[in-house]
Specification:
single chain; about 0% strand; mainly alpha; about 55% helix
């Protein structure tokens, strides 16, 4: 039996198993989807390479100081607009609803 006959017999079995029929329009749609996926994959490779070249040419960002670094703690800052420091006491002796 030729390979085309074996292929068509397998396709008929698959179509019966999944409850649908395979027509030439289905094959054309599947081929178009496969070609579109291949084209998108082919376009993604140059775009990725271009992004890597751009990252290689960018200068490195300056090193960041930690929040508790001595240079950061001694940095001059403006006075705060109001003071929230001190002892806070929430009187809940009457319950949460009062």
């Amino acid at each position: 039996m030729s390979s085309i006959g074996v292929f068509s017999r397998r396709m008929n079995l698959a179509s019966k198993q999944f409850g649908g029929t395979i027509t030439t329009s289905n094959i054309r749609v599947g081929t178009a989807v496969a070609c579109a996926a291949f084209a998108l994959a082919a376009l993604a490779v140059p775009a990725r390479a271009q992004g890597q070249r751009q990252r290689a040419t960018l200068p490195a960002p300056p090193p960041q100081m930690g929040a508790l670094a001595p240079e950061n703690l001694t940095k001059p800052r403006p006075k705060a607009p109001f003071d929230l420091t001190g002892t806070w006491f929430v009187d809940l002796s009457g319950g949460f609803d009062t």
